Structure formats: structure tokens, C-alpha cells
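ugh finaly. both done.
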Amino acid sequence: MKSAVPGGTTEAGGKQGQNDVRRPGRLAIGVTFAALLAAGGPAHADMATAVDAFNAGHPDVAFLEFKQLAEGGDVDAEVWLGYLYQEGQGTSQDFAQAMHWYSQAAEADNAEAMVYIGHLYYFGHGVTKDLIASVRWYRHAAELGNASGEYNLGYAYLSGEGVPQDFDRARRWLTDAADQGLAAAQFGLGRLYEAGQGVEADRGQAVKLYRQAAAQGYADAQAALARLGESQ
């Protein structure tokens, strides 16, 4: 079973994330937690149980489950385990371990892991801050069709962080991410259309994109519509 993406890999640089994980009921996790206590550990770890544990507010249980799965070679679990180490949830924060498990998953062409590695380089968490390296990892993910990778690569071209500023390339990568429904990309692309950067200014297209992002609850897009006097 393929898990939901842990946390939110959408954006570096303090930009608004878009991958909130829904929280299931607590009955299943109560049974799982009791079984773990009885067994002394996750005897039959599986992704569904691990994700449920995390969503239900038991990162310590999730950590044990994901660790067993990751050590068995489950690529999705490797990404989750890296995330828990990165955030210090269910375990002590350890960026070196986060990088280790993300790298394991990235070797298996997991694009989400590549985005997380890009974030570690972007912020300088556990590694020397390196915007060029962050862009390299975002590009790897983008070339695999990952929307978060496409967005972050587009943002790099938009801001000139790690690459020369290039509004045309920013537009192209943001368009690819926006076409996958990523609200952050829809908003960023809308800004380009509103300002006429890398594309001919088009207020109507900007408003359309802002509305798409606003419909997903993206606060900056909602504010942009209000600023332009447009309804959501």
C-alpha cells in the first residue's frame, strides 16, 4: 500500500505547504498500540498501521513501525523514517539519519525523498547550506514528474536561488506543477501572469489561477483575489 506523503514536501523557503494528512479514528491505533506493548515491538509492521499511528498522534509507535519496514527495504517507509528523524517526531531529531534514509529512498528513484533532500540543502539542515545542490535534487524530482519538485525548481528560477533568475523557465516548471493541481504552483503562476513576468500580462488568467489555488484553501491566493476585488 502506498502511503500518504509525510508532512508536506511541497515547499522550501518557508512557503505554504499543501500535504496535510487526514487523521483517522483512534480505535485502530488503540488496538495497534496495545499489541505493540504486548509484543515489545512492531512484530508485523505494515504501512497502513504506521500511517494510522502517525495520523492519530502516536509518532513513537509510527517510528517503530516505519523503522522495521525501512530496514526491510520498504522505500515509502524509508521516506517516512527520514521525515520523523528530520522533525524529531517519535525519536530525537537527527538530520544525518534523515539524510541517510532519504538517500536510500532516492537511490530507488523516490521523487519525494529527492525533494526532502533538496529541502535539507536549502535550509542547511545537517549539511552545509547549498542552494545549487538543492536545485539539483529538485530537478531530479521534477524530471520524474513530481509536482513538488517541479514547483521548487520553478521557484528557484523565479527567485534566482541556486540558478540564474529565468522567468520563462520558472513559468514552464510552475505550469507543470499547477497542471497537477498543486495550489502553491497555481498561485505562483498566477503571480507571473499578473506581473507579466516570463509571459504576457493576463489579469484574467491570473485570477483563474488564484481561484484554483484559493479553492484549495491557499491563503495567499485568497488574499490576492481580495486585493484585486475578485470573488473566490
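ok and the 2nd:
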Amino acid sequence: MATLAQILDKLNYVRLAAIFSLALFAVNGFFSIIFYLLDVDLMANTEFDNFSTIELFFFAVFFAPIVESLIYQFGIIESGLWIREKLKASSIHWFIPGLLSAILFGISHTYNWSYVFITLAIGILLAAVYYYTRKRFGSTLALVMCIITHGVNNIGAFIGQILS
């Protein structure tokens, strides 16, 4: 039986982007359903109502994924891996920078605790996407992959916000 890594290793970059985007979309949808059933308003205390539809689309689909991926996936993970290498600190697990990036990503979305929880989960997935893509294609294409998957995920959030 093939492992997930073996299956992913056979896919090209574009197909991986589609798979990773669907995975983020599914996780976001899962938590959205859970919070809906618990009658938790995910959009409470967000500033999204202050944006026009066009501004919200640009911000959510382009600006936020680029800036956040540069900071949280590329910046924090690469810095953490660089520090680990320079200190020759193999006792520091290689995924610690990814976990730190996910925690900071979640905390940066402090609109409400439900939103922090979802963005923490999304941050963990984005860190995993970054690590996997970095291993296969290098850090530049890993950054681009995170921007793409984050942007696609935010398209779903944008549509949900517009429809609510």
C-alpha cells in the first residue's frame, strides 16, 4: 500500500497545488460546519465589513496570502531552519519552526477565538505544504505553493463572507 508521500511524489506541481488547496478548503469547511452547529459566529469582531467587496477580494485573495506566506511560512520556517543549521542543533526537531509559524499565524488572526483556532489548523497545514514542497522543489516554489493554496482557501472564505 502506497503512503501519502509516495502518492504525492508522483504528482506534478500544478496537481499538488490543487490537492493542497482542496485539503485546506476541506479543513476550513469542516471547522466552519462544526462552529455553525455550535452556533459560533466566525465572523464576529472581524474588520471585513469595513471593506468594499472589491477591496475584500483583493485583500483576502492576493494581499494577505502573499504577505502572510512571506512572513509565516517562508520567513519563520526558513529562519528557524537556518538557526537550527547554524547552531548544529539537531536536538531541535525540524518541524519546530513550522509549528511556531502556525502558532503565530493563528495568533495574528485574533478576531475571535474560533477564528484563531481555524487559522492555527490552516497554519499547520500551510507549514506542512511548505516543508513538503521545499523538499521537492526548493524554498522559492514552496513559498509560491503556500501563496497559491492560501489564496484559493481565501476565495472560499470570501465567497462565504459575501453569501452571509
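summary for the 2nd one i guess: The chain has six helices and no strands.
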